Inverse folding.
């Protein structure tokens, strides 16, 4: 099995592989670029070896597109399919890549599609802590058939053992948790000078994180205009980059504009953020992965999505600032997510994450954030009228009630100061509507109340820790 990978597997990857071979579900927690991807790919290899299907889910469409591009040469393009809100092809393929929302919808409305499923890989599983989208990951775990191996790939979290126990309880199968950061402080430097120092120290290619879009564009333009600090591209690299730019401009004439962005990229630097055209972002990602671009100035969304390992990552600040002042310090998990983009497997014996000094930060701030405790995965399971009606449309009332009782919040509620935290986000108040459900003839409000009432599961935590969810009208 290890021969399927072009590099030697490390201890974390080998441990996860052994668990998968034994047919167990696995939760892998490691910093960004810590080797989690190989664990997910191993689950896909094993599913194909067993002549069954595998599903790989991601939180972003761009990540799904990238995974298809990665999987096509590894498993064969005819065996890889894509399901997102924008594209659907090879729906019956052995390996399906999709967003997590699509996977949840399939579990509820198209069960035959997962009938021959051997494993589901939930990439970026720490998204379950997101207040708005976290319920999607939680519902996906709850609705995944018990016979399917769940492979959850997460950044570092503090309550991995509790999440492992919850997954084991939900599916009734053995589940393993596999768990796998120094700093110096200098003077305040402008970004062109930072790039110049990185190049002299042979620390390129680098991803420089800037926390607002205009800052990314301005930084890229400043570096490209500063000849002494701009990256020095070898002649063959510069020629290949120029040819790639000309090819992109010919294919996207309406997006070229005044050509300023192309001129900046010709210097080996580029910006990457949500305000750019998707076609240009895809070009930047491909050029950086191929070694044609040396520096990308990106917002933090790059750390949460597209896989672009670099020799060095640079954090330009320790707090987000806006027109109204400081918006808040970087959470430890976010800082580790960005810093963890360092390291190109099989290429770098060592890699560096650099935190720039600013007039507003001191070294103690960096130590506090980087060495701080990471937040636990908390439940954001939110029963809504739509969720309840979808359950009742596809399942009997008793099954729907049991599913509602399986949330992480009922299994592992976080505590604060010895007391249970009870403040929860509730649905927006809407007028009560009396809609009768097809199976029971009960009103939607009555069905919601019945499905949302929870009792403690048989192997629940000690008394006093069970949370009851109530859906308000």
């Amino acid at each position: 099995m290890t021969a399927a990978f072009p590099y030697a597997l490390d201890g974390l990857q080998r441990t996860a592989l052994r668990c998968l071979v034994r047919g167990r579900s696995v939760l892998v927690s490691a910093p960004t670029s810590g080797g989690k991807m190989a664990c997910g790919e191993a689950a896909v290899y094993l599913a194909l070896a067993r002549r069954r299907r595998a599903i790989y889910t991601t939180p972003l469409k761009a990540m799904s597109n990238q995974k298809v591009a990665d999987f096509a040469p590894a498993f064969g393009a005819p065996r890889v399919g894509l399901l997102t809100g924008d594209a659907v092809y090879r729906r019956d393929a052995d390996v399906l890549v999709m967003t997590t929302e699509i996977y949840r919808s399939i579990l509820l409305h198209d069960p035959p599609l997962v009938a021959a499923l051997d494993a589901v890989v939930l990439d970026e599983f720490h998204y379950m802590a997101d207040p708005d989208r976290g319920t999607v990951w939680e519902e996906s775990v709850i609705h995944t058939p018990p016979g399917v191996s769940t492979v959850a790939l997460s950044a570092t979290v503090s309550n991995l053992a509790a999440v492992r126990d919850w997954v084991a309880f939900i599916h009734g199968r053995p589940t393993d948790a596999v768990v796998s950061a120094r700093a110096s402080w200098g003077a305040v430097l402008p970004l062109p000078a930072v790039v110049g120092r990185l190049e002299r120290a042979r620390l390129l290619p680098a991803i420089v994180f800037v926390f607002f879009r205009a800052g990314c564009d301005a930084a890229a333009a400043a570096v490209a205009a500063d000849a002494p600090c701009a990256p020095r591209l070898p002649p063959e690299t510069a020629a290949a980059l120029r040819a790639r730019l000309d090819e992109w401009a010919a294919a996207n004439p309406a997006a070229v504009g005044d050509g300023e962005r192309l001129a900046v990229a010709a210097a080996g630097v580029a910006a990457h953020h949500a305000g750019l055209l998707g076609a240009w972002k895809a070009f930047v990602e491909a050029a950086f992965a191929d070694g044609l671009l040396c520096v990308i100035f990106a917002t933090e969304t790059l750390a949460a999505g597209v896989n672009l390992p670099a020799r060095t990552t640079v954090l330009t600040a320790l707090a987000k600032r806006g027109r109204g002042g400081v918006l808040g310090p970087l959470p430890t998990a976010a800082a580790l997510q960005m810093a963890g983009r360092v390291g190109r497997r099989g290429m770098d014996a060592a890699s560096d994450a650099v935190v720039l000094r600013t007039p507003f930060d001191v070294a103690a701030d960096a130590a506090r954030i980087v060495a701080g405790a990471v937040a636990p995965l908390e439940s954001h399971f939110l029963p809504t009228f739509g969720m309840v009606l979808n359950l009742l449309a596809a399942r009997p009332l008793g099954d729907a009630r049991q599913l509602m009782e399986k949330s992480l919040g009922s299994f592992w509620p976080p505590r604060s100061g010895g007391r249970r935290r009870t403040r929860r986000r509730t649905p927006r108040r809407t007028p009560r509507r009396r809609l009768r459900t097809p199976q029971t003839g009960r009103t939607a409000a009555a069905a919601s109340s019945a499905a949302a009432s929870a009792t403690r599961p048989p192997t629940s935590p000690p008394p006093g820790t069970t949370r009851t969810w109530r859906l308000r009208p």
In short: The first strand starts at residue 25 and ends at 29. The longest helix spans residues 235-251.
